[in-house]
Amino acid sequence: MAAPFEKTPASLGFSMPAEWETHEATWLAWPHNPTDWPDKLDIIRWVYTEIVRRVSPGEAIRMLVNSRSEEKLARRYLDRVGADARGVEFIVHPTNRGWTRDSGPVFVRRGPEGAPGRRLETAIVHLHFNAWAKYPDWRKDRRVPETAAKRLGKRLFHAQWKGRPFVLEGGGIEVNGRGTLLTTEECYGNAKTQVRNPGLGRKEFEETLRDYLGATNIVWLGGGVAGDDTHGHVDDICRFVNARTVVLIKEDDPKDINFRPLAENWERIEDFRLEDGSKPEVVALPMPRPLYFDGDRLPASYANFYIANAAVLVPTFNDPNDRVALGILGELFKDRMVVGIHAVDLVLGFGTLHCLTQQQPAE
Prior knowledge:
CATH class: Alpha Beta
Number of helices: 10
Number of strands: 20
Distance between the termini: 26 Å
CATH superfamily: L-arginine/glycine Amidinotransferase, Chain A
Shape: globular
Number of domains: 1
CATH architecture: 5-stranded Propeller
Helix content: 10-25%
Strand order of the largest sheet: 3-2-1-20
Strand content: 15-25%
């Protein structure tokens, strides 16, 4: 644990860059927990091979595995689909699950401004994952940022509030790399369910985000989508596609459970201002038709895409709106290929592509 009065990343000039900025690598964790995908684990491994196949042409892959035998298994799957495993660095670190967006290393970066001769530098912020304040098995996952910092030789900042570990997940925040950060009240604002930081109000929460992620402008949406067991992660509803444009999920069926909370977010977005006081451009993304498993609504959302160097990976759900969403995102990301990844099985784990990935920015 860091000393209570250590310097914060923001005080040293660090801030969290946007996802579309150039990556050095993408972090993943090879799937192994059968409870995340009941009776579907083998299918999910093939989905991972497609993720690697699409991401690896543009950047390195850093893949967490539980053991060397699991590495051999992963290599066999990759070889069978023709994915080039030479660009995959396997790191032995046992995990509870594979949701690297939430448990993996969150990177901040500082540039040479004000310090001639200094190059870009990245560091890692430890956000003390606790399985969304819901599940008991998280201690292996919580150690991932420490392993990453040691492996890469990076400075590690332990996010804290007055000496107490501060808990946050990467899927619960969205940044434009210029100071604006999006989050939701359902997850971190006035939450009475799955409370990550008991006793902290919005003021303390925002102050910690400013200190550790360099956020200068924090914007709150309302709730997330039905079926999200993280209780309101923003990466299922609203995403930046560039510094001044967001896509926001919209449900057109007034009978759908998501209609009212998503409509409220569309009302809130009217008051949304960027860090310079200007209004962003807001583009609507549709919702797929409802998906269920064992009677539970699944959080299927096109907003859970991942922006890699070589491609934008978009979850698809065998739905007529798949091509609508791909078309919208294709118009917004003209500098890289927009690719659909079948996610009907993946979403059984209550998350899809963005939830599984974590970007490491280039220096």
